[in-house]
Task: structure prediction
Amino acid sequence: MLGGFDARRTPILQTDVLVIGAGIAGGTAALAAARQGASVLCVSKTPPSEANTAWAKGGFAAVLAPDDSFRLHVEDTLRVGAGLSDPQVVERIIRSGPDTYDWFCDLGARFDRMRSGQVALGREGGHSVHRVVHANGDATGIEIERVLTQSLANEEDVIVRIGAFVRDLLIEDGRCVGAVILEGDVELAVHARSVILAAGGAGQVYRETTNPAGACGDGTALGFRAGAVLSDMEFVQFHPTVLYIAGASRFLISEVVRGAGAQLRDAAGQRFMVGVHRDAELAPRDVVSRAILDRMVATGDTHVYLDLSTVDGDPHELFPSISRICRAFDIDIAHDPVPVRPGAHYAIGGVRTDLEGRTSIEGLFAVGEAAATALHGANRLASNSLLEGAVLGRVAGESAAATTRAPSLPRRIPKPPEPDYAPQLQLDDLLYSLKSLMWRNVGLARDEPGLEEAVHRLALWNHYLLRAHGHDRRSYELKNMLTTSSLIASAARSRTESRGTHYRTDHALRSDDSWCRHVFLCRSPEGAIEQTSGPLGPPSDVGSVQGLSDVE
Result:
């Protein structure tokens, strides 16, 4: 016996730093921690090629052009963030852009260049100048994952375990001391000095999404169950242009396409963004997404069209991935309009952290899409996410490696409760119902009746699943999706205004007097969602804010 449990039945792995997730944030964190001399175990339930990072088509934003400046990039980020971005956080991350570019180049990343040899920069929605670094036109994420995977493989102090699903974090005396992971039918405990949550992405809770199948909100749900404070869960960014063909998998049509001159048109061929925003197709993503939704409702169509015939250059050469996918459906992007509609793309909210990735729980860090740093505010500026993941991933990795106090072994490993009754649940049906409910009631346009229905139904489904679920990855993933969906719906119901990506038809105006503040969520001792709101502060201070209330 060891620490109150049978080590023969639950093997224990030891490491200095446990990293959960192998995208850009997790990969950079693992690499940074190892280069500080720490032993690192990086676990991921899917291969890096199936992480959100690898699916990123655009690039990452950095001030590299002569006509650009840190001031301009900061101003663009704050403007799009709609009053909820923290200026200090924005300044810190934006100023790290050029160094991040150099760091990736040192790892061997091959970014696109002009004939002069200078880095080629694209422009995306919300940016005032060209500042988006890209690779192979529209395959930046793949290139970043390639160099990170190769670099991690070359580090002696890093072990990467693919196919390892994290069931729960281990908390002992208020400190995170590791996690329980599942590898097939085998359950393992990992004991660590520090744990970094980098399993972000929650697009799969929606029917329409750009995210890969593994983006189930795992990091958010793990942090919530462990007792961490969460922030800004109501803000979910929808990407305006997702390839929409009935029966086909959804595919992101990168914003760089519109930055190169592509135009949005309805079924009648009318260009409709000109009268909506002064930047037309390059308006912030929330503006473009809602304009598309409005046009779809007005015309009764299921989608609009993206016209690439207006692009400056050959779109087949500029956007080879998009060209290849569209050709599979007999669409010639140089001549044929591409059917598109919005899809859930990026979870702005997550586990609340400071600028070193520290959460409200000692020993637990969060980075990337699993974290809420207040960089993005109420609406993420395009291509700031990869930048944030790389910058804070490195910082968090170094901070986690500097943790010298070895935590005590957990006295016990928590076991899932045995079901008291086993209703026959069809998980496929429950999953489809969840995704449809979130798309319909907690999507681009929201209102009180729809949000109230969503909160009620999600609580009911979660209750049934907890009573009947099995001890397998699929059941745990669905549990995480229900938890994350409940957090999104609860926060959205409480914010009675429209701001950034959060749009309510019954409160259509932005209210700075009442709502220029953040919504914080945490778990009550009974497992319910507690919430409050207030100004931004260190994660450790959030729990002391008065006015917490239970949300069903």
Summary: The two ends are 40 Å apart (CA to CA).
